[in-house]
Amino acid sequence: MLRLKNLTKTYRTGDQALKGIGLDVPKGQVLALIGPSGAGKSTLIRCINRLVEPTGGEVWLDDTELTHLGAGALRKARREMGMIFQEYALVERLTVMENVLSGRLGYVGFWRSFLRRFPQSDVDEAFRLLDRVGLLHMADKRADELSGGQRQRVGICRALIQNPKLLLVDEPTASLDPKTSRQIMRLITELCAERGLAAIINIHDVALAQMFVPRVVGLRFGEIVYDGGPNGLTPDKLTEIYGAEDWEATIRKVEDEEEIEAAE
Amino acid sequence: MPVLERGGAQVWQRRTMGERLVRWIGWLIGLVVFAVCWQKISESTTWFFVWDAPRIAGDIWDRATPPKWEYIARLGRPIWDTLNIATLGTMISLCLAVPVAFLAARNTTPSALFVRPVALLIIVATRSINSLIWALLLIAIIGPGVFAGVVAIAIRSIGFCAKLLYEAIEEIDATQVEAISATGASRWQVMAYGIVPQILPAFAGIAVFRWDINIRESTVLGLVGAGGIGLQLSSSLNVLAWPQVSLILLVILAAVVISEWVSAKVRGAII
């Protein structure tokens, strides 16, 4: 469904963030993208919906090639791709409801959105989603009144109300505590399963990735160095991705956490 | 080097010897310049008038007190005009300043090479000319009266409002804008949802702040014939009616105090 061919990005400073990435994401697959800071994870995600313009290669979403689309067609294509951000990126001074409905902006004309007169079907869907993530009672609160975990749920609703085929998730848990992190990861993977959504999740917490996703892609210096199941991430592999370090603790942590999880 | 080796111990000092010397010389030069200027000013001052000043001031004070209270009946209309000049002028200037600010802000300008310099030029040009001078120009063009005052205040305020607003636009959180763009929103929708909510508090603060300044500025516009209470002030000064002058000054003071109180309240409520 999503196919990246030889995708490259060279920043104006000369830094090669992506060096010919090729990646295939079938429909409904949730994939974790791991790698050290600066490996190009964020750039890769942003090159797909062209928040960052790729310098070369192709991005195919179903039968559309995205890198050469004009402004109007790009907007249409972006509606198919929901994005979730690290620091939530909610519009702080708008209410929860407005933030969720902003996910429909690609479908609604300017004046309707400006006057907040969204179609009733969109409003119904917004209430359904807020209910699904357990925030129905918060609909009228301003986004900056919410806690981190709640904000990220609103971010998820905003992405889902677009009715996308693909979720691009950029470090969804980096600003959250361990428990909330898991709840958010579980929510994202559950929702993807419910709706048959594919997702690319940038994540630096290897243990968390292993816990929730069936496929892990490791990125190092803009190149894919690992692509496989979560259990194939041996200390050797992690060393290849991140550099030398004692990985036994990380891997053991996963098992410990699973026990805690079971105890809960 | 601030760190020196002295007898095996590492000595740290804030400044090196050279830096201290430079500073000392800098202060010396400053002192000398001050002394020379003092002397020049002293030479070109007619000290007789200065020594006489307290007596003259006392004389004017005697004539000006008590204020001519019954004159207040004639001041209602002019002070109302002054308020209107300030309020209307501020509103017009805000309407003009918003587009200029969006054109001037680095992250929203359509072209940093061509449009932005023009917007910056508008900001600098309107800011650098005092509203009294604008009023003089406008009176020559559209004749004396309140309207000239309104336009003078409006033009003078564009630069101020646009400058503060474009700085606010440049400081917005870019990821919120990214998030809205990522939904497939159009350029105008990104502006309405991603940018406007972020700059709204700054906008309200700027509007009230400028209104407060404009009340003070519009009190003097009448001196050149652009309407408002300044007109009364200048005619009273011309006939040396000191009790009227003192009353006008009191009224202006009251208006400014009230406007400042209002603007402080409003800004406190928003921010």
Give a brief rundown of this model.
The complex is a heterodimer of chains A (264) and B (271). Chain A has 264 residues and is α/β, with parallel strands linked by helices.
Largest sheet of chain B: 2 strands, antiparallel
Query: Helical amount among residues of chain A, as a percent range?
Result: 25-40%
Q: In DSSP terms, counting alpha (H) and pi (I) runs of 4 or more, how many helices of chain A?
A: 10
Distance between the termini of chain A: 37 Å
Topology order of chain A in helix (H) and strand (E) letters: EEEHEEHEHHHHEHEHEEHH
User: What is the CATH architecture descriptor of the largest domain in chain A?
Assistant: 3-Layer(aba) Sandwich
> Averaging pLDDT over every residue of chain A, what do you get?
88
Overall SS class of chain A: alpha/beta
Helix-strand makeup class of chain B: mainly alpha
Order the strands across the largest sheet of chain A as they lie in space. 6-7-8-3-9-10
Gyration radius over CA of chain A: 19 Å
DSSP strand content of chain B: under 5%
Inertia-based shape of chain B:
flat
Determine the strand fraction of chain A and express it as a percent band: 15-25%
How many separate domains of chain B? Answer: 2
Q: Which architecture of the largest domain in chain B per CATH?
A: Orthogonal Bundle
At the fold tier of CATH, the topology name of the largest domain in chain A is Rossmann fold
Unreliable stretches of chain B, pLDDT < 50, 5 or more residues? none
- Mass-distribution shape of chain A: globular
Count of helical stretches of chain B: 10
How many strand units of chain A? 10
Describe the protein's architecture and organization.
The complex is a heterodimer of chains A (264) and B (271). Chain A is α/β, with parallel strands linked by helices and 264 residues long. Chain A has helices at residues 41-48, 71-79, 96-101, 110-114, 120-132, 148-160, 178-195, 206-212, 235-242, 248-263; strands at 2-10, 16-25, 30-34, 56-61, 64-65, 81-84, 166-170, 198-202, 215-220, 223-228. Chain A has 2 domains: 1-21 and 36-76, 3-Layer(aba) Sandwich (Rossmann fold); 77-263, P-loop containing nucleotide triphosphate hydrolases (Rossmann fold, 3-Layer(aba) Sandwich), CATH 3.40.50.300. In chain A, the strands form 2 sheets. Chain A has a 6-stranded mixed β-sheet with strand order 6-7-8-3-9-10, sandwiched between helices. In chain A, α6 packs parallel to α7. Chain A starts with a strand and ends with a helix. The model of chain A has no long low-confidence stretch (mean pLDDT 88). Helices cover 77% and strands 3% of the residues of chain B. By secondary structure, chain B is mostly helical. Chain B starts with a strand and ends with a helix. Chain B is built from 10 helices and 2 strands. Chain B has 2 domains: 3-63; 73-270, MetI-like fold (Orthogonal Bundle). Chain B has helices spanning 17-43, 47-64, 76-104, 115-128, 131-142, 146-170, 174-182, 187-221, 229-238, 242-270, and strands at residues 3-6, 9-12. The longest helix of chain B has 35 residues, at 187-221. In chain B, strands 1-2 form a two-stranded antiparallel ribbon. The mean pLDDT of chain B is 88. Chain A binds chain B through residues 49, 51, 75-79, 81-83, 85, 87, 89-94, 98, 102-107, 110, 113-114, 155, 158, 162, 168, and chain B through 173, 175-176, 178-186, 188-189, 192-194, 197-198, 200-201.
